[in-house]
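Chapter review: from sequence to fold.
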Amino acid sequence: MNEVFTYALLAFTSFFTLINPVGIMPVFMTMTNQLSKEERKNTALRASFIAFCFLLFFALTGQSLFRFFGISIDSLRVVGGMIFFLVGFDMLQARLGSVKVTKDEIHEYARDVAITPLAIPIICGPGSIANSIILMDNAGDDPMKIGGLILAIFAVLLITCLSLLSASSIMKVIGDTGNKLMLRLMGLIVMVMAVEFFFAGIGPLIERFIMK
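The token string follows.
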């Protein structure tokens, strides 16, 4: 049971740092600044739900898709590690992902903004997708670990949804300095995870290459 809790905690921490609910708030506020309070609420709920479904889909089917295309999980670990490292490096520099949207364009995609770019790829990006597939592979056939992974994804997306719903209030409290400090801290954690993922994948690949 202790092992399952540790695994679920790892899953929660990794998804929380990669999705970064605090970091996406300024982007969300920029994208929805011309929407009404009710529209902004619906956008946050819709985007969080879509991102959850998308991550769950890749967690459950990602390994099968990779087998179909002949791609190994170890290769994903290497690529995922590199993606995590780049994401973490940007976070360490306190650089937020931005979406270029003009005032004229906001009304045009107001109904679809929850799907893209908010849900995909801002909330559910390449890093979190790779993370869901890798962690599901690590869970193996253990139903407790699989349940812990799904629960961790749900918990992080719930926190993300709540942070988007209260984005205007939170941004006023933590300010720009607090937001950058949080980004740097999470960026450091992501980069450490990136090194772990990279070497966990590169080792078996080198061994397989040598044995050939």
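Two observations follow directly from the output. Confidence is low (pLDDT under 50) at residues 96-101. Residues 58 and 193 are 20 Å apart (CA to CA).
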